[in-house]
Amino acid sequence: MANPIDLKKQDQINNQETSQIAIVIVPYLEQGHLNPLLNLSRLISSYKFPVFFLGTSTSNRHAKFRLCGWDILDFPTIQFHDLVPGSSSFVPTSVRENIGSFFTSILLLRDPIREFLQEISSRYRRTVVINDSGMSWVVQDAVSMPNTECYCFHTISVFTALSFACETTKKPLPSPVADIISELPPRENTFDSETIEYLKLQRESRNFYSVGLHNSCKEIEGIFIDLLEEQRENKQYAIGPLNPVEIGISISKKESHACFSWLDKQDPNSVIYVSFGSTTTLSNEQVNELALGLEQSGQKFIWVLREADKKGGDNIEKGFNCPLTKGYEERIKEKGCGFIEKKWAPQLEILGHVSIGGFMSHCGWNSCIESISMGVPIAAWPIHSDQPRNTVLIMKVLKIGIVVRDWEKRDELVSAVRIENAVRNLMGSTEGEEMRRRVAELSGAVSKSVMNGSSRKDMDSFVAHITR
């Protein structure tokens, strides 16, 4: 069950007309999903709505600790609520056998979410639930409650969402979009069997949505947004990027992350940032190939080298027992050519630093859109899930990146030589410079979209829809 709601406090905070409407945010419980939905909470809170952000105590702590680009204290209408898993009575035995313990623990949130929504709906004229697409099954009871409606938020790119949708609907797509999507790897090559079963359960629970929300904008994915509306036959709002597009680095952030002192000493566009997200741990052999490739490239780098988050675990500040070859870190430090961070790092602020000229990334959508927002081209190293599809978007459609790890050779070690050549190409070639120019233009268009363009208009339209 959720912790008690401080409704008296909330009533004191909200006395505008919009306080008659409560917004309940239900994120999927991994960092790549927590982050955009917390950013969405900030955006919705700016319209003076009371916002309730639901999660476990661990996921809520992670969301707040890893916040980038803004201060949670500046948005007092956002309240976090810790959910405790309920009984397993709602989860069929056949489902539990196929999806494993982590996914089962998420499904056990259906009871406490239902109880929370019942309490909230008794206090407000309307309750608006915005849930991650990966949480559709646990919010399904909301549609039977009075004055309660649900909207689905997608944390993947619209391009990837379109590719999944057309696989389901079998509706044709126009060329050349159809040609690009036909070449994408099948889901079975990018997701493990448990994840596929879990996603199938969510997809089957999604027939009550009339609207979709996306962390993207028409300047990046306009044609795909239009095509997705045709595939799903409902409205799709592109309201991103949800991360701040103009950021500064606070004194406290600089004091707590030594990387900024190092970055301040580097030339503009001279450093490549290397990070593979919160769900990837490279093998020891691959780590050392990457280390050697970065060193041999002669390019300065900042490398976030850490273990993946444990599913459902709480290793938020845990360091990494780094498997680098003996003497490597000392040599890099002596040369002054690199900075290795073994704990979580504030990625958005790093990408926004003037010295960053490239990003070697797993191509999770958060990383892609943050890189685009900050005007940084990408060296793509897809690992799993939607990442191979995002790589195609970055490479073939937007043309703001190169490939380091070829998906067709995903079972092979990426050699130091290949890494070295990729870094030199992105950071030191005419081709890389053209990508930097292109992504800088895209970044400017995206910023305008958020300030007073298509994204702002879509967000205003969505707010008008829920306050009708």
UniProtKB/TrEMBL annotation:
Recite the lineage of the species.
Answer: Eukaryota, Viridiplantae, Streptophyta, Embryophyta, Tracheophyta
Q: Keywords of this protein's UniProt record, alphabetized?
A: Glycosyltransferase, Transferase
Query: RNA-binding: is it a keyword of this entry?
Result: no
Q: What EC class is this?
A: transferase
GO biological process per UniProt: glycoside biosynthetic process
Q: Name one GO molecular function term.
A: UDP-glycosyltransferase activity
Enumerate the Pfam families for this protein. Answer: Glyco_transf_N, UDPGT
Q: Which family does it belong to?
A: Belongs to the UDP-glycosyltransferase family.
Among InterPro entries, the record links this protein to: Glyco_transf_N, UDP_glucos_trans, UDP_glycos_trans_CS
The name under which this protein is listed is Glycosyltransferase
Q: What is its EC number?
A: 2.4.1.-
Q: Where is the Glycosyltransferase N-terminal domain?
A: 20-244
